Amino acid sequence: MRILLENFTKKFGDLTVIDNMNLEVRDGEMLALLGGSGCGKSTTLFAICGIHRIDGGRILFGDRDVTHTTSQERNVGVVFQSFALYPHMTVEQNIGFPLRLRKEPKEQIARKVGEMAEMVHIEELLQRRPGELSGGQQQRVALARALIRRPSVLLLDEPLANLDAALRLEMRSEIRRIQQETGITAILVTHDQVEAMSMADRIAIMDAGKILQIAEPREMYENPVSDYVARFLGSPPISFLEGRIEDSAFVEPSTGTRIPVDPEIAASHAGRAVRLGIRPEHFQPDGEVPIPGRISFIEIQGRETLFDVELPDGTVIRSIQSANEEARVGQEVCWGINAKKIMIFDENGLKI
Known about the structure:
This protein is α+β, with helices and mostly antiparallel strands and 352 residues long.
């Protein structure tokens, strides 16, 4: 089911939260709405499911205009951050509740509940109540309840926010598996870029009620339209150097390091101040353009280690490495930047 938002506008009183947004979610894909608090991603989701009435534009499910229809008429499945399970009901009763509202036959409900429980791997939990389940198990129940009605669209509002790190990893793959198996169109709202990149076919980055960029995760990571998008994607985050373009190179002022840039950029921005972005994996001991600095911080992350290297003016460049047992905090180093992987942004933060 394709979802289309045309000139979508939403206001709360005199405050316009979303203004003339256009967005298409393709049939069968999972799209992630990614952004910080207050960017408008949950407002967009609630408008799609019918919780919020919109103040302008229209919403289409396929060719059907659902702008003024109720949530029930839209046939959407929603999984909330809080799970929203009925504590007095068993797992079986929670999952089958939407079908009981439809007054489907008991035998048919039992069969569908069994099929859904098998899909989300909770067959042995059907007689338990939510209070007897772990967070991950409760999330599986909530997912099964959302899917049992065979919705046209699955909406996921920060579905993993209340889970611990290990469960988040497990449920990321499970939700993605189920979405792909069912072929249902899904929208994931999250502030976690790792969730967005690992689960979604495409990501829409939002800020202040606007979509800044829509792209596949790898494309967005490698070709962000702005320094805001570049900063939002990537863990550890990207580092930035301030400098100028002079004689076909970016010049870092505190060390005098010259990093060669594309000839077209060198010609169009000669003598101008720009910002250079460096991903941590592209700043390594054997990098081609050495830049001197001092290790100011080390964080061991298991198989990888994060290093912060401070330049003379206090600017920090991050490096992520698989192993470097010789490096110590306070050590002077001269690691190198991969000039082929740098990103350059103009004074307005737009990628050149």
